[in-house]
């Protein structure tokens, strides 16, 4: 199985080295690692290339466009996605690949890092409970920081929709109409707590709005992710 790993990145020179280190250290080595430079103004491209990633440029700002550019550029049959501020655990790709045969997509849970141990544990337990519920309801909730799709299937349904947020979830819904989409509890990814800027309540309210269909997310006026 050839798996391309795609990491969208806009001005991520600080976070990117740790993310790439985690991806290159996988027990199932990726076929290739692609960093999509989403019109960065810092050293994102230089950092990615120095660490061994293939860099693809996407001038249209917005994570959906960057993910789509990475999907199109990938040369593997399967395309795994994570984020520049995320740290896949060492057996992430191995666990996803194990459940991939016969499916069109697989995905796993997340846990915050950079918070207290209690907050980290609660973030993981809460998210796992949510994913289990959504899987039972037949509504797979893919996250861009922890998902893997069959490239042919993803392109068949049009790839990532051009929205500000929820592009990952919406692609999952499209793929679920095409074939099995499987939740893989063992495929854990750690993700930074910068989304908690402003506190837990605004974060949870934004998640609830997204779940109800609100396409807005963590973006500035020009479409880039807020920092």
UniProtKB/TrEMBL annotation:
Gene3D superfamilies: Spore Coat Polysaccharide Biosynthesis Protein SpsA, Chain A
UniProtKB keywords: Transferase
GO MF terms held by the record: transferase activity
All copies of domain Glycosyltransferase 2-like, residue ranges: 4-154
Protein name: Glycosyl transferase
